[in-house]
Amino acid sequence: xxxxxxxxxxxxxxxxxxxxxxxxxxxxxxxxxxxxxxxxxxxxxxxxxxxxxxxxxxxxxxxxxxxxxxxxxxxxxxxxxxxxxxxxxxxxxxxxxxxxxxxxxxxxxxxxxxxxxxxxxxxxxxxxxxxxxxxxxxxxxxxxxxxxxxxxxxxxxxxxxxxxxxxxxxxxxxxxxxxxxxxxxxxxxxxxxxxxxxxxxxxxxxxxxxxxxxxxxxxxxxxxxxxxxxxxxxxxxxxxxxxxxxxxxxxxxxxxxxxxxxxxxxxxxxxxxxxxxxxxxxxxxxxxxxxxxxxxxxxxxxxxxxxxxxxxxxxxxxxxxxxxxxxxxxxxxxxxxxxxxxxxxxxxxxxxxxxxxxxxxxxxxxxxxxxxxxxxxxxxxxxxxxxxxxxxxxxxxxxxxxxxxxxxxxxxxxxxxxxxxxxxxxxxxxxxxxx
Length: 435
Ligand code: GLU
Hints:
The chain contains 15 helices and twelve strands. With 435 residues, it is an alpha/beta fold. The protein is globular. It binds glutamic acid. Residues 70-72, 144, 146, 174-175, 331, 356, 359-360, 363 line the site of glutamic acid.
């Protein structure tokens, strides 16, 4: 396999590109090229069969100029330090892009969580906190769910942290179960944030939802919620996939049913009956085709939503993408080389640091509620999220038009200007030099 550019290197390329379009101090750029702190731990876990296994865990605090570092924690077999560093870097820009007072952080454990029992998973989650407790905290670095982690895991983690801390510390983690201080509206926040971006596009382009077709790669939390909200508005979701493969139904898939089945069977492949003519009466899979993930990306649809992992659209397949709009619900699904190819083909990419910022935005609302001991109604969470996403979308879109750049560069410029202002207000070399 061809060696891919490291994810962190790719992030720096995007930083340099954006720096060409704004007045930014070289010191700001230099600070952003380096992660502030990196912690790597090994987590020994007693397995159910009595044996011991040791897992690698990481937490990276990229930059805290705008506030405590914030970002998810993933459990995935291919997670490594380079990936976590890039993801932390993206969090810095994501929080700055939507204007919430957090810096960027991220964590990960190299593990296939599907191969662990529930008790093993709990021991691993608590073990991670045991090793990281001195590094994270409500005012320094606040983890949240990410790929293959969820509110239950955050619940174990906050419990472990509170024990070690000898006092309740609900703001040490976000994305918790509502019963232990989680926020209403956090569960679907990433999908809803992306949905609000699509509603902004709809307004700008005067789209009629029923005329627009959508393909979604990845049917985890974010993919399912964005599908549900768009389907509810009349958009035609024609294809969805998970790591095992996808289904394609040109008339539009029955989204509520697909979500129900996916969560029951844990895979989409069970939704499709083998054979070209379906004989079974219970399913409505007639006209539904099974398609591999790569073909889903290349479908002739109006909006493509990659909601799975990084590096899905690269220089190898970018020229075959037919969708005129890509909304990045995953982090980093389009690599830097593909950006140029898509740009040449006139594809608009609503970048991850905007499109998937709904999750961290509602995490911020959760943190605020925990700090002041309040509980917000779900409607309040939704309307404040709409406000944050709408403001950021319009500011970035305006910047894109004013500068004549692509959406991603505009989002980076917007974030970079905020970061630069904060760095400058703390004093840079040129600031002191002019005194
Ligand atoms: N994991 C999510 C992200 O990548 C959410 C982070 C958070 O809520 O802190 O944005």
